[in-house]
Amino acid sequence: MDFHAAEEEEFGFSRNYFLAKEMGSSGKKSACKLSDINVVDEQELREASANLEPKHQNDVADLINSYKSLYPKWVFDLRCGFGLLMYGFGSKKSLIEDFASTALAEHSVVVINGYLQSINIKQVIIALAEILWEQLKLKRKVSSQSLPKVQQPFSSRSMDDLLAFLDGPEMDEKDSFICVVVNNIDGPGLRDTETQQYLARLASCSYIRVVASIDHVNAPLCKLGIEVDSILEFQLLISVFFLAGCALVWDKKMVHAQFNWYWYHVPTFAPYKVEGLFLPLILAHGSSKQSAKTALIVLQSLTPNAQSVFRILAEYQLSHPDDEGMAIDDLYSISRERFLVSSQVTLNAHLTEFKDHELVKTKRHSDGQDCLYIPLTKEGLEKLLSEMS
Amino acid sequence: MAPSLNDDSPPSTIDEAFTENNLQPFFVLQKGSSRKSDGKSSGTGRTRRIDLSSASPKNSANIEDEKEDENMNLRMEAFEFVWSKIESTIKDVLRVINTNVFSKIQTWVHQSFDTIRSLGTPEFPEATQSFPIITDANSKRLFTGLVLTKNMEFVDDLLTFEELGKHLKYQGCHVANLSSLDFTPKNGVGGCLRSLLRQFLMSSLDPADISILASWYREENCNNPVVVIIDDIERCCGSVLSDFILMLSEWVIKIPVILIMGVATTLDAPRNILPSNALRCLCPFEFTLGTPAERMDAVVEAVLVKPCSGFIIGHKVAVFMRNYFVSQDGTLTSFIRALKIACTQHFYTEPLSVILLEFASEEDNLVLEIERHGLSPEVIWKHVFELPSCQRVKLNKPTSESLAHAFSELKRSQNQWRAVVLCLYVTGKGEKVRLLDLFCEAIDPESYNQGEFDTNMKAEKDPVLSSSQIKGHVICKAVRLVSLSSIRDLSTAQLGNLLKIWENLTVGIPEVIFAGSFSVLVLAFLLAPTFINGRELKIPGYSNRKINGKVKELLSLLNVEDGKSSKKDLTVTPRRHTSRIQLNIEKDSKSLSDKAANLIECMVRDYMHPTECIPFHEIFCFKDVDKLRLALIGDPRRRIQVDLLEFQKLLCCRCCTSSSNALLPSMHDTSIMYKLAQEHGDLINLHDWYQSFKSIVLCPNSKRKPRQSPLPKKRKGIKEGESQSEASIQYPLLYHSSIFIFRKDLRILDHSCYRARFCRAVTELQITGLLRMPSKRRPDFAQRVAFGL
């Protein structure tokens, strides 16, 4: 019976797809241009967007409030060792954070904002280890047991060590866990495979419980019920899904043995205010361009050295407004003089980071040499520099 | 960066979004309070508890709350107890399955170690040098055990390799477990070494150097083999694995490493992954683990069929779990996870589930002290009365005692059911009957209630059984047919063996009633209302002899017959049913195996009572398959689309509910946009989409059917000024709407507002992955991603 239903569904899916394809390519494609609508300045549009009065405000509030009755159940599930995965339309950020601060008042809670562009997962794990250390110290003091001295600070330990510490033997009280709230676990800052692997390992630690939200319809590959017969096929599918803008690829180990998800459908219809902040607005001028504000947010998530390298470039651009950009060699020599980079490799690592987030672009200089520039206006750049300091 | 907070002006929403914390990659929301004295109560997460500590006098509601909290904590305790029992049972079962392979591996490890040692041990000066010793090609051979898992789902074997590691450690080996994650091109061979050092030396040294490992081994007195287990080589990076093998092979005299590698596909796997120089270093041996289906059956037997924890699952849940295993996920791990979710759900929703704590541990003489479970007797009895299975049998006045007796009866009935299921299983084993399938059929209450057995009997007698006849309960019938035919085809010796197994399985199946252990009340309760759905509910063992006795009888008959090689008649059919199934006809012509077949038929009919047909089973049995499905699988792809298409159902707003599918301006913007997107092909012209959207939100009585295609050409000509005047005309109509989207001042109703709303909706669709933004090649078109739910 189920089998037939699944088959039917699959058939429906492909039929719809081909129908849509047909409609799209039947020659009736509209030729109207986006530019026919008067596109406006991004800042103006963002302001207008921020001032929109939300629809159904009370209904949305009622809906979100109705989930409060589920809080005890969620705590129960966390204590049973599950991770909670919230999905459904609407921002779930405030819902989850409210849950964490009210129902988990006696637990430490760390929030990761996955919607941001760049997140250093190691920093998060170091912070978690420090919190756990404090917690254990406090407990041992009460129970007059001695805690082994920390051999080296957490910040200089390896990921494996940190995770091993968080996965330590459980204490007498089983429910003394630290809750990690992950807003948009499928967001840009957490999407890469390595970070997901670390998150999965983190989730399987004995002292950690994860409450996460997911927004993308195509979230995890193995949840789509796709049977994969070979590793090659699996890899192929992964690449296809990445190309299709699919958010995550979790293997079965991650889903069943590490994250151990308990799915909850909690649509909120709350606006994706902060989550949408870093996405370009479709009707804005130069929507693909980096705004000073988003550039700042990206920069703040980078290391101080990387920020300083960026500053050198920005200052150069401001002082040489007529130049096409700064030569990489020049940037390297100045950065090296200031002890910001030790080698070309380190500089390249920073540059890759900048380029990935469109903070910096490369241009071929008239003399044939590659040079770097920041795609921001003079005012924008000045504003950025002042806010950085 | 931080928003300038001005108390006079209300903070704009953009500033709210820009609060410091929202823009931090991560932040500490709160630190756990040190007070943990009330420990367990923290778990229930009842925020109301804060109110209880206030000075207000405790009223009855508060007391009820406290009781509920207490009950919830007890349920949590019961869950932990039950689940730890299930978990340890599963571990034991899997360990037993692997015992043989593990001991073979262990013997091989020690033999290999002896061989390595026979090549010579390094002298002191050599041993202390920080480079390897190579004498000849033999001294570079690395003993490698290839463990065939026969399972693509490596997640099921993680535990196996972990257990193997423990087993070998227990036997004195130094063991390190590596996973495919240690063999990534990013970390290279250094990553594997670091992992080895961490596991052997309990420290992370940088730079990782194998000579450190060599000196560690020298200090360990060189008496034990070093085993490195890699759980799944097919997921490892070939070049890193090859480097690792080459490195270990050079050091094998100083560090006698024995490799154990998990292989999911075929034994050719190493050849496909490794270059020839690495392959030359390997000296392979093969081992094979049990198949996933064997493991599944063993787990089902130990956890779901045999008495393990007292917690059971209902028929629908079992069928769902089986289907999920067979056609979707295919891993035992997910099956166990589903069971855990079911268990969690059950303990959370069923207040009386706390009883399982005692039910699982106590023997037949269960003494219930309801008050101990943090619930008042009134609440309990009310709950008991409301159980559907209890309402079916009209219980006069239940007491703790009667409840306890009913539980004993439930237990007894389960034991009988179990014995029959296992008898069927061993009988059908030769025909590859899976216990999981059999289990699903054996707990089906409907087939039992419909008196399915009788129809089966007819079907069995009918040699030409069409497929349509066996549809529905195909497995159960097939099992019976198989078991019957296989019994009839058995030789006397085989039959003897089978009967012996039956005998063992039916030992201790209690005979009911007349033992004097039941009070009159229980008798009245259990015996009087024995009509369910117009069908007589048989009380197991009431008039039948012990199953075990019958099996013994048959066995002795077999021995006699075997000895005398002559046919002898003995009717073993229970007296009560003799007339109905007419087993006594043609006594003389019946063979002994027919009798055995008849016996199992009787056993199925009389003893295989699905738990769901027994009163009070809800206390132990989880049946809510929908909740399990939602929690286990989730379905973001479908559900998020349904959220948008049917948002009014979730928001319960009256303004957007209409009988037709018309799009109303009061609807959620993203919902309108998504519904409009359904009219497009895979590409959506942004201009047209914007115009359609604007026309909907501008014109409240344009009851457009979503299936009507947009008319971009007509709308294209609409000037923005016209739109505004149109809006002004419609204004009185909108004014009274509680969901009015704009500020009441119509001056704000300008174009940037529409644009902003349009943009926001597009962004939201982009976040949900339902839309892809325009590419450079097609700047005027967005792309739909999802087609169909």
UniProtKB/TrEMBL annotation, chain A:
Keywords, comma-separated and alphabetical: DNA replication, Nucleus
Domain Origin recognition complex subunit 2 winged-helix span(s) in chain numbering: 320-379
Origin recognition complex subunit 2 RecA-like domain ranges (all copies): 61-221
Name the UniProt record assigns to this protein: Origin recognition complex subunit 2
One cellular component term from this protein's GO annotations in UniProt: nuclear origin of replication recognition complex
GO molecular function annotations of the record: DNA replication origin binding
Organism (species): Gossypium australe
Pfam families on file: RecA-like_ORC2, WHD_ORC2
UniProtKB/TrEMBL annotation, chain B:
Ranges of Polar residues composition bias in the record: 1-12, 53-62
Domain Origin recognition complex subunit 3 N-terminal: residue ranges: 41-355
Leader sequence residues: none
Keyword annotations from UniProtKB, A to Z: DNA replication, DNA-binding, Nucleus
Region (Disordered): 1-69, 701-723
CDD domains from the UniProt entry: Orc3
GO biological process: DNA replication initiation
Domain Origin recognition complex subunit 3 winged helix C-terminal: 637-712
MF annotations from Gene Ontology: DNA replication origin binding
GO (cellular component) term, any one: nuclear origin of replication recognition complex
Compositional bias per record (Basic residues), positions renumbered to this chain: 702-717
Compartment list: Nucleus
Family of this protein: Belongs to the ORC3 family.
Name this protein carries in UniProt: Origin of replication complex subunit 3 isoform X1
Source organism of this protein record: Gossypium australe
